[in-house]
Design brief:
Elements (H helix, E strand, L loop, with lengths): L3 E6 L4 E7 L5 E6 L5 E6 L4 E5 L4 E6 L6 E6 L5 E6 L3 E6 L4 E7 L5 E6 L6 E6 L4 E5 L4
Length: 140
């Protein structure tokens, strides 16, 4: 748990980016669909969005009160969903630079979150209680 994440060139078997910036171990990450950004979530409930072209953190995601366990970009490329041990989903708007929705989604921690990759109409969440829910993102 060294609180870093790295990007590797698999063909060359070489690390091309090593990033620091979290104060707790990173538990999850997600790539934006065009590969320009990556989001990371840590065990303190802090998320960060990184620009892979510069290697810099471009946005801090503060709002979850427990561990961020899963993240997924919506296909519009400017919204990001995060699921947490605080039983909530947050939808982040990267243009507005804040959380636009906080949804009390499950009664137990949210272990996974995935957004439908083409139109982004649906989002699926899974909880530690063994429950999956399908959300219509147009209703958010």
């Amino acid at each position: 748990h060294d609180k870093t994440w790295g990007l590797w060139n698999i063909e060359q078997k070489k690390e091309i980016l090593l990033q620091e910036g979290h104060e707790a171990a990173i538990f999850t990450l997600a790539f934006q669909n065009d590969g320009a950004l990556i989001a990371t979530g840590d065990l303190n409930g802090v998320g960060r969005v990184w620009d892979l072209r510069t290697g810099r953190c471009v946005l801090n995601l503060l709002g979850h009160v427990k561990r961020i366990l899963s993240m997924s970009f919506l296909p519009n490329a400017y919204q990001l969903a995060s699921g947490s041990d605080d039983n909530t989903i947050r939808i982040w708007d990267l243009r507005r630079k804040n959380s636009v929705y906080s949804i009390p989604a499950h009664h137990k921690l949210i272990s996974d979150i995935r957004c439908e990759p083409t139109e982004g109409k649906f989002m699926v969440t899974a909880s530690d209680a063994g429950v999956c829910k399908v959300w219509n993102t147009r209703d958010l």
